[in-house]
Fold this protein.
Amino acid sequence: MQASAIRFLQHLPLFASCSPEHLQQVANVTTEHRYEKGAVLFQRGDACDGMHVLVYGKVKLSVSSRSGSEKVVEIIYPGQSFGEAIMFMAGSYPVMAQTLEDALVLFVPATPLLALLDSDPQLARRMLAGLSMRLHGLLQDVASYSLQGAVARVVSYLLQALGEGEHAGAVTLPVNKQVMASRLNLTPETFSRVLQKLSEQAQIVVEGREIHIPDANKLQQLIEVA
């Protein structure tokens, strides 16, 4: 376990510049957890006593209302970490974490990791930079949800996923349409209506989770007139 943990951790931006000694210290306390699709890693309100790193699979971070509706706050992909912000606060999780597919997660407990941060200022700065980038991304999402209509949100996502400078191609949704709708702060019904509208106005073709875009300029025009 320690050897495989070191191999994975040393390729993460967070730990890439750590000395072999520090990497070994982290690996010594890191535990490996395998989860089946739909497994809950932690519930909202659970005490946070460390950080998680996703090796493979996908994990959604979400909150649920009293009525039972769910809002997906973030989707975690392989190579990303989560939980470290709450770990610093020694608080409880404000979200639930659940796997969207079979997943392998590394867990690094707080006490030894915080001790390592005390001895490695560069690691502390990299962790702060990573947290800042994620916060910036979440703030951009909030601004987008507040200022953009449903069509603009979906089009913006598709264009970003297609890639800058690409004029045509296919985008594969990383999660099912219900989760994708929640991530874009839309109801599944609204998301479906938007895709239908884009099929009519921009000739996109929706085949399950794969969306074929024949002309990105037509999508861009829909944002400009929205």
Q: What stands out?
A: The two ends are 53 Å apart (CA to CA). The chain has nine helices and eleven strands. The longest helix spans residues 121-147. Residues 155 and 219 are 6 Å apart (CA to CA).
